[in-house]
Amino acid sequence: MDQAFIDALREGIGDQGGFLVRPPATYRWPEEVLEMVTQGQVEPALIVPASGALRDIVLAVEEDYRLPPEDTRRNSEIDQRGIEAIAWYISFHTSPAAWGIYIADDGVEAFAQHAFGSLPGLSDGEKLRLALQVVIDHERFHYWTDVACAQIEFASWRPIYLPYLLNHPDLSSSVCQLEEALANSRAWRTVKAREARMALETHLRYQPPGYRDWNRYRSPNAYALGRRQLGADIHSAPASPAAPAPPRVLPPAGALSKEERRAVTKQLLASANAKRLNPAVAPVRWRAAPYEWFFDEHRAGAGKAQIPIRSIPSRHRERVRPFLVPHARPIVVQESPRFVAQLRKLAKEIQQKWEHKTKPSLETGDWNGLKFDKKAGSKDVWRCRVGLRHRAEFQHLGGIKYEALRIGSRESL
Predict the structure, then answer these.
(1) What's the pLDDT tens digit per position in 306-361?
(2) Residue 140 φ/ψ, nearest 5 degrees
(3) pLDDT, tens digit (0-9, with 9 covering 90-100), for 161-204
(4) Is 7 inside a domain boundary?
(5) Which domain holds residue 349?
(6) The domain spanning residue 355 has which CATH number?
(7) What is the 3-state secondary structure (H, E, C) of the chain?
(8) For 138-168, what is each residue's pLDDT tens digit?
(9) Measuring CA to CA, which residue among 255, 305, 322 is closest to residue 95?
(10) Distance (Å, rounded) from C-alpha 94 to C-alpha 22?
């Protein structure tokens, strides 16, 4: 984990684990997650972007990996409790030093088998990755709810998230059901393949109330209106004496980019229609405030925010290593004669970028930012970034061996 990110998490809160506010007894975090947070085990398995594709995720499974058989116990838990049977989001409001997404590996395996096990044309490793994408995208919506609450706190200058947490802790609340429905809708819309979408829709149909209502927010307009309603419901939650004051008005520095902070401040000023946010001077005109904006992950700077993920290794199989790894595995790169000739024709800056940054990063397993992935429409050709405007293509020779085939501008490749 990057030391600067750790320092950002600790900024203003000290080197601490545990909870600032203990969650309600009825909340859905399992004991192993509560134990990890309480003991201050803050080292995440992976840092992922808060929005966009999850291309930098690498699964620590072999090429011949096989999903386990149907796990009826886990399937029953998912049907009864939804995604929160296998993955959980801890807010930076409740635990600034150990916030993020927690994922149970054996739960994701069961979900992959249950939802996508019968899909043709995909390896078990690809089905596992698809399931992991759905789970993370569901939990990422909870992160954006957390951020939305922090931004509303910044405007209204009173605790928002913690009263919401304490007043709506489980699925007995219609507001909690709305958040879970929107989270599932977000996860559904990130699955692009038609067959995978249909399989996921069938699976979501059997989840509990709220989760199974995702279809109400299928269209972009309905999804926006749902987020507007959720923001209004959260903002109108009654204050709770258990909520600390003053509130933590913005996420930790690592959870929100500088561009995002500037955009948030600008939008809040516009919503308040005043030069100052002091409620005594200029109350926020919430009737005109676009609540859905606070959940919008496509606004300026939002894509640079990051979320830590902590993987809980399987408890029911021989595997003890988590699926998620902080960096990709190292690979061996061979340069073809054609590649060498093309590289020599490029600017000195690009040659140095390849020799001193891109190639060493691939061979040490530090793929973050390189977008090393299969080329669209290709079976065994991979590509990665070489600076901002150039790309390299590789052929997978088997195992960890790759041959660099071509290098050039992204337009030429």
Answers:
(1) 788 887 766 545 544 456 655 456 788 999 999 999 999 999 999 999 999 899 88
(2) -65, -30
(3) 878 887 887 778 888 899 999 999 999 998 988 999 999 999 99
(4) yes
(5) 332-409
(6) 3.30.2310.20
(7) CCHHHHHHHHCCCCCCCCCCCCCCCCCCCCHHHHHHHHCCCCCCCEEEECCCCCCCCCECCCCCCCCCCCCHHHHHHHHHHHHHHCEEEECCCCCCCCCEEEEEHHHHHHHHHHHHCCCCCCCHHHHHHHHHHHHHHHHHHHHHHHHHHHHHHHHHCCCCHHHHHHHCCCCCCHHHHHHHHHHHHHHHHCCCCHHHHHHHHHHHCCCCCCHHHHHHHCCHHHHHHHHHHHHHHHHCCCCCCCCCCCCCCCCCHHHCCHHHHHHHHHHHHHHHCCCCCCCCCCCCCHHHCCHHHHHCCCCCCHHHCEEEEEEECCCCCCCCCCCECCCCCCCEEEECHHHHHHHHHCCHHHHHHHHHHHHHHHHHCCCCCCCCEECCCCCCEEEEEECCCEEEEEEEEECCEEEEEEEEECCCC
(8) 999 998 888 888 777 766 667 788 788 878 8
(9) 255
(10) 7
Q: Which residues make Cβ contacts (< 8 Å) with residue 172, sequence separation at least 6?
A: none
Residue 13 is predicted with a pLDDT of: 31
Domain co-membership, 235 together with 381: no
Assess whether 125 and 181 both reside in one domain: yes
**Residue-level pLDDT at 7:** 39
Residue written as token pair 């299928």:
218
Number of folded domains in the chain?
2
Looking only at the bridges linking them, the beta strands covering 390-398 and 381-386 are antiparallel
Q: How far is CA 364 from CA 156, 230, 368, in A?
A: 48, 44, 11
Put residue 182 in one of left, alpha, beta given phi > 0 → left and psi -120 to 50 → alpha.
alpha
Does residue 306 share a domain with residue 389?
no
Token digits of residue 99: 């916030």
